[in-house]
Design brief:
This protein has 18 helices and 36 strands. A hairpin with a 2-residue loop joins β23 and β24. 60% of the residues are buried.
């Protein structure tokens, strides 16, 4: 049952539901559906990978439209082949390295258009199956393709019908869109050695400009012939053992491809060919595909088994497992077995023994929920990420990480949110050398001669004027707000490093958000260099737009940006006129007409009123009711979002999954709590979706979340207990939860306005409770 907005916000009488819990004991987790998010604009992929692994071996269906940023869309009817690297849920495409195309009949060197699969090497397909660590499909050529992985290698098993067949390796395959000019690979090469190992690499200028990828590939059966093709698909002379150029390919021909399955094992590296060979070597001792598949399944079973739920609907249990799966795909492993990786300073760096470097940090997105989820359920993984973030922050000429991909800082989005997971981890007691990152953070904060990318433009104006002027720098309103949040996080790191004066300067500057919130009208509003506000103001619009591409907000409009504040909620409430005014403003956010201007980006999706669940800027907004003493409205809206915005279907994620952020929002919210400000190290209660959940914690501890009798008709929390003691607060600290215990929600069909109403029971923000 989907509750209407009127039902969600109406009523005050109690209707508490009392029911017995199922017997205590182990809960078997549901199996995830890897096709969730592969339709619509979810931008996920269904192929084989390991948690945070280097290789993502998956089918590609298209490379020329925004729907296929991951290389795959469930609505497509043909597969181009199987490439070894993918991005999950991003709004920009890249990767898709080392495409493998098993087929029969005439050799085609071009894929052909999506609308005409017969024109190239595309193949229609049937019997598609995906599970963690494994993918299988039957191609129209009769080839059954199976994929699995280790951390740094991709494994194929291609079973051909009787007769001849071939395998094409295409290094010209890549994401392209209308904005791309010229050819984006300037250096590619392939070669085969005397032992039959095919090696190659390329340099790509797509999103991560100038990134390199290398591979070493071995085959279980020696081909009867191999041919190499250079630029313009020119075939190299017979007997050639390699080729170099921009669009290079190789084809391996088998006179009887069906005599036995052809297995491929492929190691990759972002460093060099030696790294690719070394990454392959530990796994080059056998050809047992099923052994690798079973090992991958075991890794996933352990990772996914940390959270299990009972109750809800069968689809909701699958959505939960799928969301937890997608929350463990990125960041992706970058360092080779010897510890080397491409540093953000352009040099080859090496991690200490037993450490690792990672890529694909979508920090504008994942600092909010995906990385905080790991600090709760997998703190050992968070520790590895924190150590890596500290090292790469110190190495990067731009300091705190923004959106690094394969050793290149793309500078995508705004702010320098790499400071947030560091401050969060420090607040939650994860040990690390935080002081080692402080000099680079300080440069980004205070040295206005330090180099900038688009993400940090206007820092000097922000410091001098207290805001970024809308007539000087694009996306000025969101910049001011997000720079202020990064100041808040950085102030904690400064204090941890012993830089007290800097910490105080950052703390004061973190209040700069006030300078772009016009308290007279109650909206985030563009402000010009002379101090005047943009007029006439329309919160639906993206800003004053002096140029076609210019916006004053980042993937948001005035409505959504108004609630961007995460770290000074009580300051925002006071600035907007107090509890009642702010609560009414939240009501208006969720009930306003869901209209957007014609120039709105597709990222503003999943609208409930003007709240956009499909994008990150205001995903914490449903939880802000708790700060006004009306957590029952949080409960109603969170339950609605959990049930309406997620499905057990390819279109099951309402917007881009953004490296697991959308999925992590669901995991937290379905458990019953959410980190509005990760640096505050507390969780605000919402509405648990299941009757019981079990979360495995370190040192053998377990967090059990109980909601007896929970159902679609009981979205409200009547009361809470923690370890059998009454709990009047609408929040709980991370320090409490990680000790393990039982968090019990008594659910109700009607709201309990008294719960969490008292100021002392409201969540802290900015280190304080309401006055």
């Amino acid at each position: 049952m989907n509750l209407s907005r009127r039902q969600l916000f109406a009523g005050s009488a109690l209707g508490a539901v009392a029911a017995a819990l199922p017997p205590a004991g182990a809960i078997a987790p549901a199996a995830p559906n890897l096709f969730v998010g592969t339709g619509g604009d979810g931008h996920t992929y269904p192929g084989a990978t390991l948690p945070f692994g280097m290789v993502q071996l998956s089918p590609d269906t298209d490379v020329e439209r925004w729907d296929t940023c991951s290389g795959y869309h469930r609505s497509d009817t043909s597969i181009m082949g199987f490439s070894h690297t993918h991005l999950s849920g991003t709004g920009i495409g890249d990767m898709l390295d080392v495409l493998v195309v098993p087929s029969r009949g005439p050799l085609h060197l071009l894929p052909g258009p999506l609308a005409d699969p017969d024109a190239g090497y595309r193949q229609r397909f049937t019997d598609e199956r995906a599970e963690p660590g494994y993918y299988r499909v039957t191609l129209e050529s009769g080839v059954q393709a199976e994929l699995t992985v280790t951390e740094r290698t991709g494994w194929h098993r291609h079973s051909f019908p009787k007769g001849p067949g071939h395998i094409l390796i295409d290094l010209s395959h890549m994401i392209r869109d209308k904005s791309d000019q010229g050819w984006l690979v300037d250096d590619a090469h392939l070669a085969i050695d005397a032992e039959g190992t095919l090696t190659g690499g390329r340099r790509v200028f797509r999103w991560a400009k100038g990134r390199r990828i290398f591979f070493a590939m071995q085959f279980s059966r020696k081909p009867d012939r191999i041919a190499f093709y250079g630029d313009e698909d020119a075939e190299q002379p017979a007997g050639a053992t390699g080729v170099a150029g921009k669009r290079v390919k190789a084809a391996l021909f088998y006179d009887d491809a069906g005599a036995a399955p052809i297995l491929i094992r492929c190691g990759i590296s972002a460093v060099d060919m030696a790294g690719a060979r070394a990454n392959l070597a530990p796994h080059a001792t056998h050809w047992n595909f099923d052994r690798v598949r079973n090992a991958a399944a075991a890794r996933w079973n352990a990772a996914l088994g940390r959270i299990a739920v009972e109750g809800g609907t069968p689809d909701q249990r699958v959505i939960m497992a799928s969301a937890f799966y997608h929350a463990q795909l990125a960041p992706t492993l970058l360092s080779d077995v010897d510890g080397r990786y491409p540093g953000l300073d352009g040099k080859i760096q090496r991690v200490p023994a037993d450490a690792a470097a990672y890529s694909s940090y979508s920090l504008w997105d994942v600092y909010r929920a995906q990385l905080p989820l790991l600090t709760l359920v997998a703190p050992e993984r968070s520790k590895a990420f924190v150590d890596d973030l500290i090292r790469q922050t110190a190495q990067s000429p731009f300091g705190p990480l923004v959106w690094p991909l394969q050793g290149k800082e793309t500078g995508t989005m705004i702010g320098w949110h790499g400071v947030v997971p560091l401050a969060e981890a420090q607040a939650k007691g994860i040990p690390a050398d935080y002081a080692a990152a402080w000099p680079a953070i300080r440069r980004r904060s205070f040295d206005f001669s330090a180099p900038d990318k688009d993400n940090s433009l206007g820092r000097d104006l922000y410091d001098a004027k207290g805001y970024v002027p809308a007539d000087k720098v694009f996306e000025s309103v969101s910049r001011t707000q997000e720079y202020a949040y990064d100041d808040w996080a950085s102030s904690h790191l400064a204090r941890a490093a012993g830089a007290g004066e800097d910490a105080e300067r950052l703390r004061k500057r973190s209040a700069n958000w006030r300078n772009v919130i016009d308290g007279r009208i109650g909206f985030a509003r563009p402000r010009f260099d002379d101090g005047s506000w943009w007029a006439p103001y329309d919160p639906i619009q993206l800003g004053h737009m002096p140029k076609p591409w210019w916006r004053d907000y980042t993937e948001a409009n005035g409505w959504q940006a108004t609630f961007l504040n995460q770290h000074d909620v009580y300051g925002l409430i006071a600035h907007m006129g107090g509890d009642a005014a702010f609560e009414a403003k939240l009501d208006a956010l969720f009930s306003a007409p869901s209209t957007l201007p014609a120039n709105a980006p597709p990222d503003i999706a999943g609208l409930v009123g003007q709240y956009a669940h499909g994008n990150e800027p205001d995903q914490h907004a449903p939880y802000l009711y708790a700060f006004t003493g009306a957590p029952w409205k949080t409960q109603a809206m969170v339950r609605r979002l959990c049930t309406e915005m997620y499905q057990n279907a390819p279109k099951g994620i309402i917007g881009n999954d953004d490296c697991g952020q959308m999925s992590a929002w669901f995991v937290f919210s379905a458990l019953g709590f959410y980190p509005v400000d990760p640096v505050e190290a507390v969780y605000v209660f919402g509405s648990p979706l299941f009757t019981r959940a079990s979360v495995a914690l370190p040192r053998g501890r377990t967090l059990t979340v109980e909601a007896p009798g929970n159902s679609a008709e009981t979205p409200y929390v009547h009361a809470v207990s923690w370890n059998d003691r009454p709990w009047s607060k609408s929040w709980i600290s991370h320090a409490d939860l990680v000790q393990g215990g039982t968090l019990r929600f008594t659910m109700s069909a009607r709201p309990n306005p008294a719960f969490g109403r008292a100021p002392q029971d409201r969540p802290p923000s900015g280190g304080r409770l309401p006055a």
